[in-house]
């Protein structure tokens, strides 16, 4: 079963606009991670936020985590055409295992 | 630096044929290793993960099996492929440090079962 579910499933914006993607999960977690996937390629790790953190920044990326609502958001500011990709959130299983469970992803299209 | 190699990149196999996908990691020791499958336009489904040689955890009952004959080698196999085995197979590794370690993915194998 999937732990994380992204919303929206697809997002189309103009270059320069901000893109916000949301992720909800079901069980307690140790951390939440965001990944990016270009079409037909493997996933690339973007950012990790621990359960005791509320916000984290990396370049144009801003991630928030609300453990009370079991949700996270990924904000990409000043988007570029090169940001076009699918974005996935992933959570650990909340136990001592090393499993990482991925959501269904948000497909982002940034129009030039 | 660490690298992960996954091959082949694409594969077309008939129903009932065997399968062997290989993944190797370089530049690190004792990695956690993972096999995921991704259906078209969908998320990733965890198939197997391994925290050491000979230690394989299966997440989904299915037609597939995994083996880890060496520390940095992870193999996904099937004796007889089904049509439903078609998909994009991704191998990944993480450092054996705990749940905070990010995953590093290979470029995937696109399998089409005909």
Q: Care to describe what's here?
A:
The complex is a heterodimer of chains A (112) and B (114). Chain A is mainly β. Chain A is 0% helix and 55% strand. Chain A is built from no helices and 11 strands. Chain A has strands at residues 5-7, 10-14, 19-24, 31-37, 43-50, 55-58, 61-66, 71-76, 85-92, 100-102, 106-111. In chain A, strands 2, 4, 5, 9, 10 and 11 form a 6-stranded mixed beta sheet that branches. Chain A starts with a strand and ends with a strand. The mean pLDDT of chain A is 92. With 114 residues, chain B is mainly beta. Chain B contains no helices and 11 strands. In chain B, the strands form 2 sheets. In chain B, strands 2, 4, 5, 6, 9, 10 and 11 form a 7-stranded mixed beta sheet that branches. Chain B has a 4-stranded antiparallel beta sheet with strand order 1-3-8-7, with no helix packed on it. Chain B is globular and about 40 Å long. Chain B starts with a strand and ends with a strand. The interface between A and B is medium-sized, with 27 and 30 residues.
């Amino acid at each position: 079963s999937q732990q994380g579910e992204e919303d929206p499933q697809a997002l189309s914006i103009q270059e320069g606009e901000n893109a916000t993607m949301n992720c909800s999960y079901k069980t307690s977690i140790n951390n939440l991670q965001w990944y990016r996937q270009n079409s037909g390629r493997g996933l690339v790790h973007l950012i990790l936020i621990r359960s005791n953190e509320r916000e984290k920044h990396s370049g144009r990326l801003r991630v928030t985590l609300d453990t009370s609502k079991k949700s996270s958001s990924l904000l990409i500011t000043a988007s570029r055409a090169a940001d076009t990709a699918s974005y996935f959130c992933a959570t650990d299983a909340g136990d001592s295992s090393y499993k990482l469970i991925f959501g269904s992803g948000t497909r982002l299209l940034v129009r030039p | 630096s660490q690298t992960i190699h996954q091959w082949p990149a694409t594969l077309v196999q008939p129903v009932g044929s065997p399968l062997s996908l290989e993944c190797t990691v370089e530049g690190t020791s004792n990695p956690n290793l993972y096999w995921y499958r991704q259906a078209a336009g969908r998320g990733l489904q965890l198939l197997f993960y391994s925290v050491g040689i000979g230690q394989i955890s299966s997440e989904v009952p299915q037609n597939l099996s995994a083996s880890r004959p060496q520390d940095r080698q992870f193999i996904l196999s099937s004796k007889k492929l089904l049509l439903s085995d078609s998909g994009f197979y991704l191998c990944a590794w993480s450092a054996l440090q705990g749940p905070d370690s990010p995953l590093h993915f290979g470029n995937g194998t696109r399998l089409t079962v005909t």
